[in-house]
Design brief:
This protein is α/β, with parallel strands linked by helices. 24% of the residues lie in helices and 20% in strands. The strands form four sheets. It has a nine-stranded mixed beta sheet with strand order 9-11-13-12-15-14-16-17-18, sandwiched between helices. Strands 3-4-5-6 form a four-stranded antiparallel beta sheet, with no helix packed on it. Strand 16, helix 7 and strand 17 form a beta-alpha-beta unit.
Length: 412
């Protein structure tokens, strides 16, 4: 018997009447709520104190009848959101937007998905924007179908589940077999290297298809390096944004609507930038987990494969070549790459690419002259002080609608 609640956590009987109904005493409702109870935990998995009609939410005690905590929240979670200024409210007075596991702060889209419930979670950020986080039990195969799902709202997917939207072989086959048709040999492991897309690193691989407008129309998890084309994204890209953005880069640079995305998940601006610098200085600090896993992905490609690497993805790609060479994988001649606004050093990358037999697509490097990422971070403008200064002055526009960095430049 599962308990039922309204939006603010008030228990309901089996006929969905509220426990705190004025026509019914609490004691008379308890038999309907507790049929062979195994736990006192209920609403958002917190402890119910039914005799006093309260919920113990770890940090504070919550009154589900009023939808308010009994004590103030010592943290102002979102100063720009007026709902955050009410220290007694539950999840910015929007209880359907997520959960509050600690009693002090709602579960955010950047949190570990373990603080969310299994299934499709709608989460609200500090600005009130609603997004989707999908969580499942380890090994679950989950298939979504239909044309109304907006990939842009998809922020996080548990790395232990296999998710697909409009899978090629149909939802029933996906739920039954999961990635690669349930074929154990499709894990992408090859002799002398790691497991690539099935490895323990942070990257997740998805086969992605987009339409003529550049919008993603289907994707599905894959555990092997598959397909003719691939893409790896840069910093501050959640899964939905990475799919949509790299679909544009893949079409512009590789002329394809179908590609495999090696998704480099964001961990916030500071940690993303720190990771990018570690990849650039890996000969001192060692390779990042992302670069090592991407090295396995490259080594696991038995077919000819063309890649586009954007922003931090360029640094990951470059370091993965060096990492493979250092462990004895010297023939990667089936790989070609184009760097869109890459953070990697052009001359260092070219040196390792030649050693590994990796070719460049077109001119190889496609950068705006005022893009601070390739020109300053990637040192492309070391001999061009005019571009160096222009890029630094253009830095405020980097994250705006006219960013010289985000989308592929038209220069051939």
């Amino acid at each position: 018997m599962r308990r039922s609640y309204d939006a603010f956590g008030s228990p309901r009987t089996v006929d969905l009447k509220h426990v705190n109904s004025p026509n019914s005493g609490l004691a008379s409702q308890i038999p309907y709520l507790w049929l062979n109870p195994t736990s006192r935990h209920g609403f958002t998995d917190h402890e119910h104190l039914d005799r006093v009609r309260l919920i113990h939410m770890n940090g504070r005690v919550y009154d589900y009848r009023s939808g308010r905590f009994l004590s103030v929240d010592p943290f102002v979670k979102a100063p720009t959101n007026s709902q955050s200024l009410n220290p007694y409210s539950y999840i910015l007075n929007n209880p359907l937007a997520g959960i509050d596991p600690s009693g002090y702060a709602p579960c955010k889209i950047t949190d570990d998905p373990s603080c969310l419930e299994v299934g499709v979670n709608t989460v609200t950020d500090e600005n009130g924007n609603k997004t989707t986080v999908i969580v499942g039990e380890k090994g679950d195969n989950i298939a979504l179908t239909g044309a109304k799902f907006d990939v842009a709202q998809l922020k996080s997917i548990s790395r232990f589940i296999n998710l697909a939207w409009n899978p090629k072989n149909g939802a029933d086959a996906w739920i039954k077999d999961g990635p690669n048709g349930g074929d154990p040999s499709g894990l992408g492991a090859i002799s002398g290297s790691g497991k690539g897309c099935a490895g323990d690193g942070p990257l997740q691989c998805y086969s992605v298809t987009s339409n003529e407008e550049g919008k993603v129309t289907s994707f599905e998890r894959t555990y092997k390096t598959e397909g003719r084309y691939g893409a790896v994204n840069g910093i501050l890209n959640n899964i939905g944004r990475a799919m949509n953005l790299m679909a544009i880069h893949a079409f512009r640079r590789l002329d394809t609507r179908e590609f495999m995305l090696a998704h480099n998940p964001t961990e916030g601006a500071f940690r993303d930038l720190l990771e990018a610098q570690q990849d650039k200085l890996a000969y001192i600090f060692g390779s990042t987990a992302a670069a090592k896993q991407f090295g396995d992905i490259l080594a696991g490609a038995e077919q000819q494969m063309d890649w586009v690497a954007h922003s931090q993805g360029g640094a990951i790609f470059s370091e993965s070549i060096r990492y493979n060479l250092n462990r004895g994988i010297s023939d990667m001649s089936n790989i070609r790459v184009a760097f869109d606004s890459g953070a990697n050093n052009k001359w260092v990358t070219n040196y390792y690419a030649r050693r590994g037999g990796i070719g460049l697509i077109g001119k190889g490097y496609y950068d705006a002259p005022n893009d601070v990422v390739p020109q300053v971070v990637g040192l492309r403008a070391w001999a061009r002080p005019d571009r160096m200064i222009w890029s630094i002055l253009s830095f405020p526009s980097l994250f705006g609608p006219n960013s010289p960095h985000t989308y592929p430049i038209m220069d051939e």
